[in-house]
## 1
Amino acid sequence: MKEELLYGINPVMEALRGKRRAFELFVSRDVQDRRLEKLLSLAAEREVPVRNRDKRDISRLCGTDHHQGVALRLEGFPYAELSDLLAVWRSSGEMGLLVVLDGVQDPHNLGALIRSAACAGAHGVIITRDRAARVNSTVEKSAAGAAETIPVAQVTNLAQTLDELKDAGFWIYGTSDRAASSLYDQDLCGNVAIVIGGEGEGIRHLTAKKCDFLISIPLRGGVSSLNASVAGGVVLFEAVRQRLASRK
């Protein structure tokens, strides 16, 4: 069984609220955070042993100083299946909203996109197995615990996955800075899968061919493109805005 070390108060808190088996909680004697009492209470409920450690020891364990004085040893991240995401959507009774990432390699971008997807009420995130970041402690720290609240599926064949989503009733919207159609001219109130490309290259040619629509975010100023996680957030919350407006 694979294990990992998760660090940061919010990620550790959400992990202790989740279903993954936790083995040890490491806490620095120097932690001065009012959330620590709740975190220790959750550990006690889960019967997770608490080990007091010097802050420098936790830094060595985590490989970083940005751990906020807490770290949790637990089983590895449990990826969902595509069928799990579709089941979550169907049971919700809502218009479907999925985020598909085509080769996002920066773990901070992946974490930020997972967090944005969770905040937007998306029913899941789909990532590729090859040439892409995997969910690890850096991703979970960047997601601030959101990776425990939204299913993340890892797929081998993205083109086939997009076909399966179409068969399930989803429209596929790919983001591209070369697309002539603006995000703000689209109707995002149906069952929608938003495809975000990797840093630098964007979505791949085969992925673009599988999209029903290619859309761009209108930009002003001298910069020609947005960071992948920012672009994902912009598109997600335009979908949220449209869906809220449609209820009025």
## 2
Amino acid sequence: MAKGRVSREDWTMAALHALARGGVKAVAVDVLGRELQVSRGSFYWHFENREALLVAALETWELRATTDVIAAVRAEDDPWTRARALFAAALGSEEIAGLEPALAAHADHPAVAEVVTRVTRARLDFLAEVFGALGLGPQEARHRALAGYAAYLGWLELRRIAPAVAPEVLPRDPGATAALEHLVTMVLGPSPAEHAGGDH
């Protein structure tokens, strides 16, 4: 495969898959080059060094898993639909399984720490915004955001460490829909329709 046919994105995605498999140490230029079937020359065509690849990969993750998701969910006009869409997007199929738990496990690395901190802040702020739109006050919205994000991280960690024990956390499991619905209901509380039903 000629170096011109392997793009910068090919390298960054290969790096993200490596991060999911084995953390920061797994982002090895020679290993990724063999996977992509190119020489080191292809790597240096796109990146100055390994650290630049790592940063680019992390920024790609930030864009796809946070910036793009927030923009898509924010486009929903109805606050309740927006809230459910966010959890459906976050807890549905992962583009790269195990990536987020792997990044959390390597948050002591400076490049990882910087992006994970930025992503966590953006996600918590958006969650608080979502809960605020549902009528919660600022403090309650913040607390609900913390609880919701903790549930999200725990859900992904269960996928990584105990899929045989908790298969419902896997998107393709027959019990996944019901389990996810239960979690979302716990985090969001009763829907407007359920509220209205309780008034009668």
